[in-house]
Amino acid sequence: MHQPTSPSAVDPCPASDGDEPLRSPADEPPFTDGPLPPPGTARPPAPAAHRGAVPPVASVPRRSTDLPATHTAMICVALPGLAVSTERGQLTGHGLEGYYRSGRRILARCQVRVAGREPLGVQARMTSADRARFVGTLRATPHGGPDPDIVVERTRTADGTERITLHSAATRPLRLPVEVSLGTDLADLGAIAAGAVGPELPASVHDSGLRWTGDGGTSSVTADPPPADALASAGLLRWEFDVPPGGSVTVELKVRLDGAGPVRAVARAATNPLAAARATADDPRVPVLLSTSVEDLRALLVRDPAHPVDTHLVAGAPWRCGLAPAEALAAARMALPLGTRLAAGTLRTLARTQITGRGPRAGLIPGPRRDAGPHLPPGCTGTEATLLFPVLLAEARRWGLPDRETEELLPAAERCLAWLRAAVGEGTHLPDPQPGGPVRCETQAHAHRAALLGADLLDACGRPGGSGLRDWAGALRAAFRRGFWIDDPGGGRPAAARTPDGRPVPYLGATAAHLLDTGLLGGGEHAPGLLDKVRTEQLARLLGSPVMDSGWGLRGLGARETGHNPFGHRSGAVRVHETAVAVAGLTAAGYEKEAGSLLRGILSAAEAFGHRLPEMYAGEQRTEGSVPLPHPAACRPAATAAAAGILMLATVVGIRPDAPSGTVTLRPMRSAPLGEIALTGLRVAGAPFSVRVSRLGLALVEEAADGLQLGV
């Protein structure tokens, strides 16, 4: 897990070498948006344009091949444990296959043979976020016809447990020799991604299994029942089972990194911060999407090791299992309907990384640079995180964050807002932290929202500064409407950015959706946006057009723009997070037709991905009978993608809480795009909350905290 670094030693947004653009996003997707990796979790080395962004934990040779594909992998997650498999079920040690603990592959190979043969795989499926089930068959009875009579069932969990069960359908007793071939290289995940792993380590017999020792530590596998024979030189465990007709036998293997103890996932603890929300709906995809989203979020939870009470989300598996501040805050914000405890833990964790003292960086929350596509240099996720911090605190307070926790976190939020005012200085727009960098459209949207919600937070807590933030937000609105709109015969569009000499960067991308996000989960009245009503309507039309709406969600870059790449993770791929922001923003602004189209596209994509949404997928146009194309290196599960499912369903039912005033307002989508829908097990004001929306778009609260009143 990520250990907060001394603020004085951290560049809040480490720069690339020079101003050269990053490599193609299709080449480097997991690492240009890179998290701050936890100790023991390595990353592949950055290319020249990335050097200085986030140094890898372990030095590995430069990657010369493509990243191992993850789009077909079955990834069991219960951090700090991972288990990555193919649909065959056998772990062969190829690619990413294996069991991992804190980024270290503790078992690479686990191959089962029964009577000298490998079972034929017939089914592989995820049964939960941390568990996969594989079923294979073979024919053990000679001259018994073509039908298999042995079923081999394997259950693999991220905590390092593999359960192998043989079921016999033979009509006579069988003596079945069973072999499990094991091996590992104890390689870093970063070295595996770079194609720089060494040979398997020699094994030694240990207890009732095998052990391996290398530079990465010592791992072991123990078996129950103990094997009849263990051959260290071949990495083999052997049994001979007498199986009666219709009988079963089971072998359980436990994989451990010595000294680490068993994996104890946060989701299994009594302090799990996320409510177990459930849904019923006319659309059968809705309940599965919600339950899968909650499971994936729980699987990605980790604790701050120095403060075990505080939990936060990592960015995604398998590549991004460290703390990525902007993604952690964004995901916690979208997950507020599941309770405020995750938000509180995330805010406390990041407050400890905040730069304090004096100077231009005081108040910043450090974060790495992020690739911004072919038209702009990398952006600063530290800026985004710093602006998200007061927004999340303000909205969490409205969802029911206790006053004492709000007061505890308020000084850090004030430092974020003070940094904002200092960074703006005598100007109006918030500049890029990189000297000579552009003034970005989405950065102004983040800053404007932080100022408005931050001002409300300061006023509510009796702190000064709210009026100054509102005055600046008003000035920014006026300046933005003058300087960030490009008129054209089609009605115009917002500029993606302005260069230092004032020239607009005229391309349309998904980041424009952030212009509609002025406080989507904060309750109360919808805050004024950076665009006026006419230009908001034009932006809604653009986002709903086939240029941006692929039919599977919002493209990262318009299909007609120079540099568009359907697989480019910032230049054309569908990013689920930005699509969810667009759905919520369009709905709040009253453009339900466009919001409903994006919502239905995401639901269809989720169904194609087994309801476990990846962080991104190709922005190819949807056609009759087509399915979305996966991005080969996208994280799945991913925190922002899983949390996006929560946000979109909360948007459909329109929950707008104001816990401090004891009210909750319901503003459901009047078009009822998913038919009747009911959400239960949510959390508002610290108590269970359930709501139902009819096919006519009428909402009814079915469960709420005592004293919570329905607002108008």
CATH third-level topology of the largest domain: Glycosyltransferase
Point out poorly predicted stretches. Answer: 1-11, 15-64
What coarse outline follows from CA principal-axis ratios? elongated
The proportion of residues forming helix, as a percent range, comes to 25-40%
CATH architecture of the largest domain: Alpha/alpha barrel
Oligomer: single chain
Radius of gyration: 26 Å
N/C terminus separation = 44 Å
The biggest beta sheet, please? 8 strands, antiparallel
The number of distinct structural domains comes to 2
The count of β-strands is 35
Class of secondary structure makeup: alpha+beta
**Top-tier CATH class of the largest domain:** Mainly Alpha
Brief characterization of the structure:
The protein contains 13 helices and 35 strands. The chain has 712 residues and is an alpha+beta fold.
Describe this structure in words.
There is one protein chain. With 712 residues, the chain is an alpha+beta fold. It folds into two domains: 80-263, Distorted Sandwich (Beta-galactosidase, Chain A, domain 5); 267-522 and 536-703, Glycosyltransferase. Helix content is 25%, strand content 24%. An eight-stranded antiparallel sheet has the order 7-8-9-10-17-14-13-12, with no helix packed on it. A five-stranded antiparallel sheet has the order 3-6-11-16-15, with no helix packed on it. The chain has a four-stranded antiparallel sheet with strand order 1-2-4-5. Strand 1 and strand 2 (81-85) form a beta hairpin. Helix 6 runs parallel beside helix 8. The longest helix has 22 residues, at 403-424.
